[in-house]
Design a protein that fits this description.
mainly alpha
């Protein structure tokens, strides 16, 4: 399983982007685990489950009411001149403003004429702050402001931790105060990014261009069902959980996601850097070899990290959550393997963006979504909360297989099946130890896995350390 540093030859852009996004996204978001004891002690499982369901609905609304124009502008800004940059930013603002107004009036109409939407005011502000933060972060990356993007992630999480500490300890806040901490953190981050990108100064109403808006919509529209189909499945899963098992079970489901979020976030960190590298190298010769070596390293490291996470969770979970949330422990192994497969799916998904074949992404995602919903419905009564968790992992596996087959016309990934089987077998063994043995054995196994991870990637880790120092010093990567 020994990783070779040559797998990363010619990919300094990918490495540099990964390091910067790791600092800004993974490390900063990992800090939210520190505040988890405070959150779980102050919110009941029902309150936390309610917030999680509503937050998921907000995430679904963003690609619908922006028509994925943010992703379109992200792609187009890379090679745009100053004039086109201003036009792209201006028309993106127009789309976002119109979409936000539609969401505002829809909430009022639904609340007045159909059914009462709890906390619809705070959640609208949560939607608005999240969509603006998403836009500003994408624009910052398109402008090459990677360090500023990283700093924005740190600002966001620190603001969240500080505001939640104040809200719970000093103000004795509950769910509404919890929502407002996210709103405050998002808007503070947006203000920082506005100073760096000057996006509002680039907005000119005279730059309104219907043809450009149609171009953005034509690019982004196929990505809408691709994104919302999977997000909708996540929402359907939570609705099924609430309907069959209650809000308390949804809170446990959310806590399992919180502990797997480190792997999900690390996957997203890599994907952020991989987007830029894949887009810029797509037309170059040797891209298949570069993509294959990158995939080989990604899969090996992600599954090893998933394995390492299990005994760590076994050891630390009792100290990080209140007693009512401890049942989340038994769901962690299938949750973590789903997180690892998420990274693989995201890797292939970037290929659609690089090749501009965004329509095909919809078909594979919908297929995985159908697998997810069917398995959840069939098994929810017999195995409870295991049903949506196992269904999610199998859905990611389905999407991976389909994309591997269908994307051969865009690029060809050569899989090292011997390594794939080896690291997968290690994960199965780790899961057995997690379920079967006590904390002391898991501590011992954690140390063994740590040694394997460092030994297997010793050359890569030396490369990472040396060049991370170079990045910090502003020197050129070797």
């Amino acid at each position: 399983m020994k990783s070779e540093i040559k797998s990363f030859d010619g990919s300094s852009r990918l490495f540099k982007g990964t390091v910067i996004y790791f600092i800004g996204t993974f490390l900063s978001k990992s800090l939210t685990i520190l505040i988890l004891p405070l959150v779980t002690y102050n919110l009941t499982v029902e309150e936390y489950g309610t917030f999680d369901l509503y937050a998921t609905i907000v995430i679904i609304a963003i690609p619908i009411f922006t028509i994925q124009s943010i992703e379109a502008v992200f792609k187009f800004l890379f090679d745009a001149d100053e004039k086109r940059i201003n036009k792209l930013i201006s028309n993106l603002w127009i789309i976002i403003i119109i979409g936000s107004l539609i969401v505002f009036f829809l909430l009022i109409i639904i609340n007045k004429f159909f059914f009462e939407v709890p906390f619809y005011g705070p959640f609208y502000l949560y939607y608005l702050s999240t969509v603006l933060l998403t836009m500003y972060q994408r624009v910052a990356r398109s402008f090459g402001l990677s360090k500023q993007f990283a700093i924005s992630g740190v600002i966001n999480v620190l603001a969240l931790i500080i505001s939640q500490t104040i809200a719970f300890i000093l103000l004795d806040a509950k769910i509404i105060g919890f929502i407002y901490t996210y709103v405050l953190a998002n808007f503070l981050t947006v203000i920082y990014l506005e100073f760096k990108t000057l996006s509002t100064k680039k907005f000119r109403i005279r730059d309104y261009d219907l043809a450009l808006i149609k171009e953005l919509i034509n690019f982004g529209l196929p990505l809408v069902p691709n994104n919302i189909s999977w997000l909708s499945v996540a929402t359907v899963n939570k609705i099924i959980i609430v309907s069959y098992l209650g809000f308390g079970s949804n809170a446990i489901y959310a806590i399992t996601a919180k502990f797997s979020s480190a792997i999900f976030t690390l996957s997203d960190v890599f994907k952020l850097a991989w987007q830029e590298s894949a887009i810029t190298s797509y037309k170059e010769k040797g891209k298949d070899e570069f993509y294959s070596k990158t995939f080989d390293g990604l899969f090996s490291i992600m599954i090893l990290l998933c394995s390492l996470s299990l005994p760590l969770i076994k050891i630390t979970l009792p100290y990080l959550v209140a007693q009512d949330y401890l049942s989340a422990s038994k769901y962690m192994p299938p949750v973590m393997i789903g997180a690892g497969l998420y990274a693989v799916v995201g890797f292939y998904g970037v290929g659609y963006l690089a090749s501009s074949k965004t329509k095909d992404a919809f078909f594979t995602t919908v297929s995985g979504a159908i697998v997810n919903v069917l398995i959840t419905f069939i098994l929810i009564n017999s195995i409870g909360l295991f049903a949506p968790i196992i269904a999610t992992a199998l859905a990611y596996l389905t999407i991976w297989i389909m994309r591997h087959v269908r994307m051969k016309s865009y690029f060809k990934i050569t899989i090292n099946y011997r390594k794939l089987i080896a690291v997968s077998s290690l994960y199965v063994l780790t899961s057995y130890i997690y379920y079967t043995f006590d904390t002391e054995v898991n501590i011992f196994w954690f140390l063994i896995l740590g040694f394997i991870l460092f030994y297997d990637n010793s050359k890569l880790l030396k490369y990472v350390y040396k060049n991370s120092v170079r990045i910090i010093r502003g020197e050129k990567i070797e």
